[in-house]
Amino acid sequence: MGPLRSISRRHLLRSSACGFGLMGLQSLLAEEGHADPLAAKPPHFAARAKRVIFLFMHGGPSQVDTFDPKPRLTLDHGKPLPFKRPLTFAEGSTGNLLKSPWQFRQHGQSGIPISELFPNVARFADDLCVLRSMVGDSVAHGGAVLQLHTGSNTFTRPSMGSWVVYGLGTENRNLPAFLTLKPGLSHGGAKNWSSGFLPASYQGTAVGHGGVKIDDLTEPIEHLKNTGLSAEQQRYELDMIQKMNRASTERWQQDSELDARIQAFELAFRMQTEAPEAFDISKETEATKKLYGLDGPESRDFGWQCLMARRLAERDVRFIQINHEYGPGNEVGWDAHSELIRLHTRTALQVDRPIAGLLEDLKSRGLLKDTLVVWGGEFGRTPIAQAGDGRDHNPYGYSMWMAGAGVKPGTTYGATDEFGYYAVEDRMHINDLHATILHILGLNHERLTYPYGGRAFRLTDVAGKVATKILA
Asked: What is the pLDDT of residue 237?
């Protein structure tokens, strides 16, 4: 040991005072849950839902062919649009009014009209709250997808799931709080599940991507188990790594990326016990697998995602996103600029049984009462034709739906004009959608803020109104 270094009394007092102060601050932060960024936090007020399952339909389903019937559109089929059309994605290739090739029928006691594209989802009409007046700000996929996921169509911002985890934490420390299954790599890619300027601990965990087959996802789950070392040996190794990580943090400065790495190491260690079981569907009954459409080649992929959403909801994952993405056998998703009948028929067939299976399973297990299910794409489609038998992008008035905790079942909200182009009643901007989702989770969107760049940011930026009419 080297010679003792003499220090002044003033230096000693200053150092020890800072040390005692930091100890007090650490205790205070621990009490408030900041020492563990993923610790469960109380909502701002009584929550209607504990978790969210977001069913993302990449490409933009057509509202006038799914959940928003327009008799006038049928009557005036082939006629010119009787008003000036707004900015479109493909400005020069649009034509006259195009009626829906699918019939709508009323379903359930509520009588909500649903297209024949969704015969299985239609069985749950009395559980749906159909939002017919959605509005976004971008006619292009990139900006529209980014805005749906982050609230901004131009800047990189924290994703909706990250804000939810930041506000509420997690009730299961053995699985990620925010999981996105098979997300797309286009139109923003990882920005759509990133934590942005929030601490990195709140970012989403992606399982595969849209181009990966589900067999390639399920087989490697066993590799989460470390068969070469005992749990005690792994714990010792991890403790040594974490000791070095924390020493770096203390020596230099607080680093959210390093903090997230520390959290990730710990989560990976804990996941060895729960993740393999959570992702192993082999013990599910054949009846359950059939309920989700795993017996059909066209619905097997999305069916697996929906079944996983239920399994993750059972395990208290806070925000679960499943994605109907561009990929093999579904090259354009819902983006039917041409061949509307063929493409929308195919995509609906891929998701209809799985979504209905998810709703039925959640209900039978009592999970729908505290789970909010949200369905929709980044925009809708035009009531006028494109390339003969397709539809262009339409962010000016389109449909999404919610089901489960917090919303009035068997209802519709808002309306588009008689052709289905513009939202004209109870317009619901994406900022309003986000504000409403947060409200259902017990979070005030104006209070859920984070300081960055000299001001307080929030998911809804400087806008957003809760759609109180849809609240149960």
From this structure: 66
